[in-house]
């Protein structure tokens, strides 16, 4: 309930974003990622039923102003929230966004609150356990005086601003912070100073579009449980960094997809990090881009990876055939974790949905969304020896875009959950 007050007044909050927040704060901690999402969604429903949250469009929720003020009053000044105003309209200076990405760009116009700037020289960092300054278009942080004790500050929400690497010297003073959200800013790299925050358990650097590599020192964050790097342009991850994060539970590496005609850096780290991820015992979720047939085939050698969101791109199929079957996604764990699958920017003529005799009951029971995008040679989607519903019993969204040669998708009539 209190965490919902960190967002601006009347701003729609994506439910998945709220779930990530609750998991990062340890408020929801189930044995597996599917149970965690189910439990969090149940809690959201309970808050809606109690009229503490209000349903919004596109699976969003929001907190009314009076309820929000009450929540902050309950915190007795330990939660310091000074957020910008929001109104409907496009996100300013957001650039291009993928139309098939799992998280949509925020549909808001950020308007910094003029009253917030008066706080810069007299900000009470030392009295706060949680500070939220999201949506202020800030280029710098409020002044941190040398005499201020920051030992109680655990939660720092700085998303949707204009912060760059110049904040690193200030950030490194927040040594007690366990939860840091710097998504939707203007970082061009991951500052080394940030890697000195060794108490971090949650780090979100998503949608800092220019970040292209992970520094070796990120491996120093040995308490890190949640690392979100979605919407960046990361192409390299040094050997040993991921395996150093032994407490890691969630890793999101879904990079940007801008569509045809815009060249992005190739994803080079997959062959290295797949075995490293396999050695992490606490892992509950991996979101990743797989590029090319070689990387796709590597998945069959990495059992028990809890892949939740997967983007398959640039699949070069010499026989013009792409097979989605248990021979690649072979372990039972993946059948219960895969929630989103994208196949894009590839040249196959046929997609076969196939289940061999050795796995007669295999299915993707958690898969809810499939996106097929920019498959210009695709002519057929074929199901062999099974009904699509048997393979995808929970599929609710099938989106097909820029697949001009595909004329028949009659198999979808057997998907009983399709919306």
UniProtKB/TrEMBL annotation:
SUPFAM superfamilies: L domain-like. The keyword Repeat applies. The keyword Repeat applies. Keywords: Leucine-rich repeat, Repeat. Pfam families: LRR_14 (PF23598). It comes from the Eukaryota. Residues 152-317 form the Disease resistance R13L4/SHOC-2-like LRR domain. InterPro entries: Leu-rich_rpt_typical-subtyp, LRR_dom_sf, LRR_R13L4/SHOC2-like, Plant_NBS-LRR. This is NBS-LRR protein. It comes from Oryza sativa subsp. indica. The lineage of its organism: Eukaryota, Viridiplantae, Streptophyta, Embryophyta, Tracheophyta.
């Amino acid at each position: 309930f209190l965490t919902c007050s960190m967002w601006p007044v009347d701003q729609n909050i994506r439910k998945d974003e709220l779930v990530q927040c609750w998991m990062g704060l340890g408020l929801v901690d189930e044995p597996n990622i599917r149970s965690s999402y189910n439990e969090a969604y149940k809690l959201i429903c309970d808050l809606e039923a109690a009229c503490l949250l209000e349903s919004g469009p596109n699976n969003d929720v929001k907190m009314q102003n009076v309820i929000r003020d009450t929540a902050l009053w309950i915190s007795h000044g330990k939660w310091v929230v000074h957020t910008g105003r929001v109104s409907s309209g496009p996100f300013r200076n957001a650039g291009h966004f993928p139309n098939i990405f799992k998280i949509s760009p925020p549909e808001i116009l950020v308007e910094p609150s003029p009253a917030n700037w008066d706080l810069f020289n007299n900000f009470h960092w030392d009295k706060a356990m949680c500070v939220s300054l999201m949506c202020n278009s800030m280029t710098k942080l409020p002044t941190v005086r040398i005499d201020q004790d920051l030992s109680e500050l655990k939660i720092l929400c700085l998303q949707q601003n204009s912060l760059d690497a110049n904040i690193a010297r200030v950030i490194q003073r927040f040594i007690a912070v366990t939860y840091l959200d710097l998504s939707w800013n203007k970082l061009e790299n991951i500052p080394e100073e940030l890697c000195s925050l060794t108490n971090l358990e949650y780090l979100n650097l998503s949608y800092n579009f220019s970040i292209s590599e992970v520094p070796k020192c990120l491996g120093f964050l040995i308490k890190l449980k949640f690392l979100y790097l979605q919407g960046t342009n990361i192409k390299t991850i040094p050997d040993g960094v991921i395996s150093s994060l032994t407490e890691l539970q969630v890793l999101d590496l879904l990079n940007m997809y801008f569509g045809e005609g815009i060249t992005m850096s190739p994803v080079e780290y997959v062959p290295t990090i797949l075995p490293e991820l396999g050695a992490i015992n606490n892992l509950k979720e991996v979101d990743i881009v797989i590029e090319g047939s070689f990387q796709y085939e590597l998945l069959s050698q990495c059992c028990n990876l809890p892949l939740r969101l997967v983007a398959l791109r640039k699949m070069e199929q010499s026989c013009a055939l792409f097979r989605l079957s248990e021979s690649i996604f072979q372990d039972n764990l993946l059948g219960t974790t895969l929630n989103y699958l994208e196949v894009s920017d590839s040249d196959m003529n046929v997609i076969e949905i196939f289940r061999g005799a050795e796995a007669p009951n295999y299915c993707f029971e958690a898969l809810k969304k499939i996106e097929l995008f920019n498959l210009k040679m695709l002519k057929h989607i074929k199901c062999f020896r099974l009904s699509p519903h048997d393979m995808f019993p929970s599929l609710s969204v099938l989106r097909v875009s820029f697949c001009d040669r595909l004329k028949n998708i009659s198999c979808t009539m057997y998907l009983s959950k399709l919306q």
